[in-house]
Every structure is written in C-alpha cells, then in structure tokens.
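Q: What does the assembled structure look like for these inputs?
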Amino acid sequence: MTMDTTTTPRSIIELKDVRKSYGKVTALHGIDATIREGEFFSLLGPSGCGKTTLLRLIAGFDEPTSGSIEIDGKPMAGISANRRPTNMVFQSYAIFPHLSVAENVGYGLVPKRMPKAEIAAEVDKALRMVDLSGYGDRGAHELSGGQRQRVALARALVMRPKVVLLDEPLSALDKKLREQMQVELRALQQSIGITFILVTHDQEEAMIMSDRIAVMFDGHIAQLDSPQALYRHPVSERVASFIGVMNFLPATAKAAGEGELALDIAALGAVTLPVAAVPEGISPAKVTKIGVRPEMLTVLFDDSDHAERVTEGVVVSTSYYGDMTYYSIVLDGAEKPVTISMRNTAGRAVAPVGARLRIGWGAESIVLFS
Amino acid sequence: MSRISRILPNWLGIYAVAFMLFLYAPVVLLPLFAFNSSTIIAFPLTGYTTEWFTVLWETEALHSAVRNSLFVGITTAVLSTLLGACAARAMARYRFPVKRGIVGLVMLPLVLPEIIVGVALLVVLVQLGVPLSLWTVIGGHVLICIPFAIAILNSAFASLDQSLEEASFDLGESRWGTFRRIILPLVMPGVISSLLITFTISLDEFIIAFFLTGTDVTLPVYIWSQLRFPAKLPSIMALGTIMLALSVLLLITAEWFRRRAARRQGLDVQAPGGFVG
Amino acid sequence: MRLDAEGRRGLTLISPTLIYALVMLAAPLAMVVTFSFWTQNYLDIDTTFTLDNYHEAWTQPIYQTLMARSLIISVVVTVVTVLLAFPVAYYISFRVTRRKTLWLFLVTIPFWTSYLLRVFLWKVILGYNGVLNSALMGMGFIDEPLTFLLYNANAVVLTLAHAWAPFAILPIFVALEKIDRSLLEAAEDLGDGPWRRFRRVTLPLAMPGVIAATLIVLIPTVGDFITPRLVGGTDGLMIANMIQIQVGRANNAPLGAALAISSMVVVGTLSVLIFLVGRRFGGRTR
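A:
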C-alpha cells in the first residue's frame, strides 16, 4: 500500500460542474475540482456551505442534480454507495453497536465472500495499522471516543478503498486528543498513500493535515490551494478572514509608472508595488482595500529597532496568550484598530493600554483586494 | 427542590403509596378469593382451597374459549407487529406527502372509543354479509393493536442512527444485507416487545370481541357470559388470577427485551420508552 | 408536491398499514355516517336520505338524559382522575430518584389486567354482600350493609377513575420529566416561593401532559358501556349502553349510528375546547 512518489500524481476524482438542489434550495452551484491520487484533500467551510453534501455525493449516498463525478476514471452516475471504491469515516463513527470491534472492522469483507481466516488476518492488519491490536473482542460500547474513531478508520481501510472520505471525524473529540489524532491521521495517510478527503469547519485542522484545501462558501469553491498559498494569497476578504486573522485597510490606487502600482493606504501611507503583486482576476486600478496579517505588523519596542516602513499607534486593548500577546492598536489616521501579534520574550513586559508604540511593516506582506 | 420538601414533609409520598393501594385493591382480591373455600365473595375468608382451579380444569367450554383467545391473540400479535413495523419504519426514516394525516388515521384507534370501532365494523360486516367468526375479531384487534405496535417500534426505529445503515451500505453491503445484518438485530428486542404487548391486549380485549364474535367466543366474552351466575364467581376469580399472572409475566418479559434493546444501542436504560413514553 | 424517491419509498412502506386502516377503519366509519342518514325496519334498510335519526337522538328525552348523564359522568371522571393522578405523577417525577422505572411499571400493571375483571371486581367490592360491607361489618363499624355504594353514578365514577388512572399518570409524568430542572432553580433564584414557582413554572410547563391526560381519559369514557352495565344500576346507564342496545337487540343500527356520531361530535367539540383553553393556559409551550 505504498505510493510510488517518483511519478507525477494523477487525478483520482474529477468533479465536473456538480450541482445539487433539494427542492428550491440549492446546496451546490456547479463544483469543478480535481483531486489527485495520494493527496490529503480538505473541504473547508462554515456549516451549511455544502461541504458535507459534496462528500456524500462522492460517497454515493446522494446523486447530483446535474454534473458528473468520476472516480479513478470511471463515471459514477447510477453507481450506488455499496459499489463505489470509496469508504467513509462518519462524524458519529457509526460503529455497529451490536457487533464487536473485529466484527465491525470485518463487516465489509463478509459480503465479498472472503474465507473467515483471511478476514481475521485482514482485520488484524487493519487494527495494527490504527494501533488497536488486541482490541478485536471488545464490544462497541466499551470504547472511548478516540478508539471509536480508530475503529471507524480501520473499518474503512480494510476495504482497500481508492479514496477514504472523512466527515468531521475529529469534531467529537476533546482538544488535546483532537490535536494528537490530527498528527496521527496525517502520518498514517502519508505512510499508506491512499487519497483522503476530509470535511471540516476547523481551518487550523485543515491547514495542519492537508496537501490542498478547497475553501467553500454558499455552495461554491471560493479558493482551492495549498495551505500556504491560502494563507498568504487569499483571493477574497471572506477567505482571508476565514483562514486566520487579517487586518483590512482601505486603499486607493494611483496612476504609476510602467509595471508598477502606486497605492495610498489609510494610516500606513503610500507604497509602490510591482504589478505582478496584484492577484489574478483583479485589475490594478480597482484595488480598494489591502489586508495584512497580525504577525506581519511588528511593534518596535526599542528605539534601535528598524523596519522597512514605520508608523505609530496607540494601544486600546491587549490579550495575553502566554506565548503570544495580541495588541489592538489604533494607527494614526485610522478609525478602527488593527490586531498585531507579538511573540513574548524574556524581560519584555506587555505594553499597557494607552501606550504609544512604533509599528513596523513591509510592502511585501500586504495582500490586495478589489 | 430542598425548600419544597421541607414544607411538605412526606405527604406526597404517603399519598402516592395510598394511591397505589387503591390502584391494586381490586387486583389483590383476585388471588385472595381464588383460593378461598367459600362460594360467596365476602369477608371473612373461610379457608384455603384449590377447588376453583380444578373446576376450571374440568370446564370444557372454557378450554375452547382459551384456545380461541390464543389463536386470536397470536394472529393479532403477528399481524399488528408486521403492519406496525412497516408504519414505524416509514415514520422514523422517510418524509412523505400527507404524513401527518396518514399517521393520524393509523393511530386513531388509540383515542377512539372501542364501542365506535366495534359498532362500525359490525355494521359493515352485517351489510356485506360476512359471517362473524374469530377472524372478524382478529380484524378488529389488529386495528386497535397497530397503534401500540407503532409506539413501541417507533422508538426502536427512531433510535436507529441512520449513519449505521449508510455505513453498512458504504462498506459494500446490499439493502437486504443491511436489513439482515444491522436493522433486524437492532430492532429485534422491540419486535418481541411489540409481539408480547399486542398479544396481551388482544387476550384481554372485550368490547370489540363482544361485538364481532360469532359462535366461537374468546375468553373475555366467555367470562362476561359467566358473570351472571353467582355460583361461577369463585372459578372466575381463579381464572382471573391465572390471567393476571400471565399478563404480568408477559409484561416483565416485554420490558426486559425493551431494556436489552436500549442497552444494545448504548442508550439510557432507565429512560422510559415504548408504551410508557 | 412532486413525489421524490424518498417520498415514494416512505409511502410504499406505510401502504400496507394505511390500506388496512382505510379498509377497516375509515371505510366503516364512513359507512356509519352514511347509515345514520338511513332508516331500518327490522332487517330492511331504507336508503332514503333522512335526518329522522338525528331528530330522534336530539329530541327524545331518554336520549337527551343519557347524553347529558354520559357527559357529566365523563367530565367528573376526567376531573377526578386527573386531579388524583397529578400528585402521583409529580411524586414519581420529582421525588423518586432511583426506582422511577419500577414505579412506572407498577402504575401500568393494573391496566394490563382484564378491564372486564377489574370492573367486575369493583362490583364485588362495593356490593350489598360485598367485600367492603362484609369487612366493615366484620370489624363492627356498621350494623347493616351500606346500600349507597353500588348501582349508581358514584360507583361508575369510582370504577372509571380507577380504570383510567395509569392513562392519566403517564402523560403528566412525561411532561413533568421534560421540565428542565434548572428552570425551577432559576424561578427560585428569582424569588419565587415553592407554591408560586409551582404555579408559574411547573404547572404551565406540565400543561401539555395535563391536556393529553384529560383527552385520553375523557374520550373513551364516553364510549364505555361495561362499567355502567355492571356497577351503574338504572340511573348509571350511559349513552354507550343505548348505542349497544340499538345496534344489537333493538335492531336499529341507523339510530345507533346517529347516537354514536352525535356523542362523538359532542365529545370532539368538548375536546377541542379543552385543548384550546389548556394551550392558552400553558402559554407558548409545545
């Protein structure tokens, strides 16, 4: 079950203009996406964005209203869930309550008319994979939340699916266990090389685990990119605010020289950027807003600290997180405060409310929006 | 909570116990007078005897009434549980047009006086020229038992997590295989509980049986016919004692199955369900 | 509404039960309604449309008396039963901590014993030479048997209140169980004493259960004919006894049908009124 990493990844799922409506309500408005073999792919979005609907269409629990879904090159129209090469880890785990762990994991092998000994061997292997060796005889109700999640995963993996579908599999776990499972799940996926599609509303979880993320709003894919690209180059304000925190400031585009864009940003002042910095799909003249992440603004505590550009502001509130402090600062000439995150260091106190601070920033860190 | 309990020390508890005594007063008399040697049902008790049970053993008409009641009860239990299961599953799992209306009609016998059901069926049967028999009694009993079967089975089907079926389907199992391997085992205790309860209802039901019975009478109709004869009363007491013991036994069994079902699905066993909810 | 796959599957699944209910319940009920507009002369049915049966049912003094008495007895039974049942349900829900299921089980058991036998046992208890009289005389409380116990409306009320007690306790209990206990603490925290808290929070929230109990007891009691026959004497007879007589011995099914429908209409109207009044009292709770 290892993947040959030398070949370029080929597509395992093709979604072409997939639409789904329930009566008058449209859940998905034409989804186009390619999911590559062996990647960890996440569908990220707030509840009601259509991510679970899309997952269920791929699994075959529902048929799309129009459009096509291809898995491993085969169109899936008319093929029911029990004949698709996908297996699902349910949000509730759906562990069969009347069966033991081993019977749960071996459930899908029974209809394949596999000999009993072979089933037992496969079940053992799958349980070892999820670190549950020796738990086969336990009853379903004797398991903890984390163990149930592992059983659900083993039950899917034992089927040797082309794609494993995970519907918010970690949402029922507490924070510590969830963080541990995120790392484990990612490591397991990388070692066996099967494509995983994860549905989640937790942007941090998606960032930690995924190769690529499709951010969905209102039945559309707003952006499909790697975690870094999503964070650094969000295509819209909505994506920017959903993935982490972003400060927005109004800006006016000014005429400038060849290949350059001059911007007048409220509170920060004028900058000139290469036109290449303008994201695709936005005409340079229509830039009306810029965004900057909290960690891209720096409080210059010492007079000797330098930055590419410097402005000033007054602290209106602070939030102390232990490792970090988040400052709310009203920049000179601005109305609303911006958020700035600073790593705490030894021997430096948190600046008090009302303090006047110098703020450093760089032109490269700003993101443009129309 | 603490303040109110100080004001009402335990009047409520005393009342509740007194109420239970009132509730059980007639029932307790059954075995008391069944084993009493006097032919008159009155205090003081005269002595212990099992004579009235022997009388039952020798009454041929009673035996055929028992056979009839068993036949009606078992047939009713099977049919009403089957029909109840279809309805309960449809109600728990699917949305469909005029659902409320259909459910209302099917559950209607629960609030309809039995005399109305009995009269309505009798009028139709007489008009159609259908001779009254045990089957006409079964027809009426199935009708009034369906709501009870639905109430019991509905909780069994409703607590069945839909993702269990989807998981089974997702793991390559067919619809029939999913029914056989997941749904049936999980609702089986509910089915047994429904069979026992509907059987008990049919066994005790009098009004509909009274209207729809032909020459073959059921046990309650037989008892009704015997109530006129004072000499028969002690043996009726003995018969009632046996029926009471049987009903309690069936109920305990039904309750035991219901709890097992709840435990299997990891639900709170103490939560009232089925006919209690 | 277009039928989607789910709707089709649901309808198919429920259709056997639905068809059964249509054939065995809806059709016969429709038949009874039709019948009530016809006339019967011994075995001949005259299918000419007529309101004579209703005219007779609503104007003849005997039917008026029976109908009025049935209503009064049913209402009294219902009020008595619900009032007696509420404290028991309250006790099981609020005071019993560990043995709730056992209490509920004990409450339901008498219901599952033969109704016929239970009614008959009350006759045995209350009779002239019955259990109560013989016990009281044996203990020297009275010199001769009390005669007011049996064969009157009181005996009917007592017997019916006993028979329907579990049906009144269970819905009230369920409603009380649903009350979030923190609401009661909140009321107390906001300054309500026990009685005011009961009146302002517990009772309105228990109202759906009280309404359900009221209707569950009221509707079937109107249709009972065993209890009046066994313990009611002549002034305890109710409308259901007359329906039974008309359909049975008197061979006048159309009049029986008209009486049955009339009583159902009366009870139905009363039920709707109770439901509306109760819902108002219970506020917006559902």
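The mean pLDDT of chain C is 84.
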